Amino acid sequence: MRLCLRRREFIAGLGGAAAWPLAAHAQQPAERRRRIGVLMPLAADDPEGLARIGAFLQGLQELGWAIGRNVQIDYRWGAGNTERYRAYAAELSAMAPDIALAGGAVGAMSIQQANRAIPVVFAGATDPVGAGIVASLGRPGGNITGFAGFDYSIGGKWLELLKQISPRLTRIAVLRDPVYVSGGGMLGAIQVVAPSFGVEVSPIDVRDADEIERGIGALARVPASGLIVTNNAMALVHRELIITLATRYRLPATYPYRFNAASGGLISYGPDTVDLFRRAAGYVDRILRGEKPADLPVQTPTKYELVLNLNTAKALGLDIPATVYARADEIIE
Question: What stretches in the chain show pLDDT beneath 70?
Fold first, then answer.
């Protein structure tokens, strides 16, 4: 109950900013209240999800939108559950929003399948072209556009970092969601470069917590093993479990998000996802004011963060190379 209350207070505090300065172009009499549907991949009380929504709301407010005055927002939280995504996408569609914001490719596809007439802006989608969400990055076509989170080339960088930190590794498991195109695509990209690093790569699927525990437990029984955690909703939902297992079994592991390293993961490299949601507010604003999603190119991240948890490195007995230190944007001690 306390977490739910905090969430309501958090969003209400960010959204009910009628006293905040508004952009001059929004000062219009009798302005029609617009409706935004939001479908997120995390649970409703997840701090990372709240941070992303907070950035989105702040971006809207800076552009002249105020909750309760000229905009209403309806939230749904998928918590990594595919069936829940579909059900919530249908609910949001039935509300007939003026536009929808989708966290990640799965949310975007779910809304698109529910109603192709609703304009959609996504934030954090992996390979939106390969997933069939847009026709191309430059000319998305249809009623959907947004901000890509990852491309497959980052998989090679994760592997390179892992080998730099722990050169002895000969086997790497890639923790991925096999249900979606991006899960297979990211695994394939890592497998392509694996021979040049002298490692064997295999997948661990993440359909549920039990599967994660079995997969990481089996990996730990093989000497000289490491783990790459890819970006997917189930890995987000179960991130504390994954970090706990990697620590328990003394497995060097790379992660896609800063908060993974902040929570005890060894090293993370990936885009600033909170910034993607802040930028998404700009596209939502432009579409609500008359522009078409088809005319707004899909944008790629402008910020990537390399974060090293020195405490975890010491616990694993790893000597971090000077080259990795030099590249790190943040070192957690």
Answer: 1-30, 181
DSSP string, 91-153: HHHHT--SEEEEEHHHHHHHHHHH-TTS-EEEEEEE-TTTTTS-S-SS---TTEEEEEEE-TT
DSSP state of 233: H
Record the pTM: 0.84
Find all residues with CB under 8 Å of 326, minimum gap 6, and list them: none
- Give the domain extent around 28: 2-150+272-302
Cα–Cα distances in angstroms (integers) from residue 190 to residues 60, 128, 227, in the given order: 37, 19, 12
Q: What is the pLDDT of residue 181?
A: 65
Q: Do strands 304-309 and 267-271 pair parallel, antiparallel, or not at all (unpaired)?
A: antiparallel
Same domain? For 43 and 144 the reply is yes
Give the pLDDT confidence score for residue 106 in this predicted structure: 86
Going by C-alpha positions, the residue among 107, 116, 120, 117 that lies closest to residue 146 is 120
Termini Cα distance of the chain: 33
Sign of the alpha-carbon torsion through 235, 238, 240, 242: negative
Regarding whether 317 and 186 lie in a shared domain, the answer is yes
Which runs of consecutive H residues, i.e. helices, occur in the chain?
2-15, 47-62, 82-94, 104-114, 154-165, 181-193, 209-220, 233-237, 239-248, 258-262, 273-288, 310-315, 322-327
**Are 92 and 158 in the same domain?**
no
Q: Residue 234: what pLDDT? A: 83
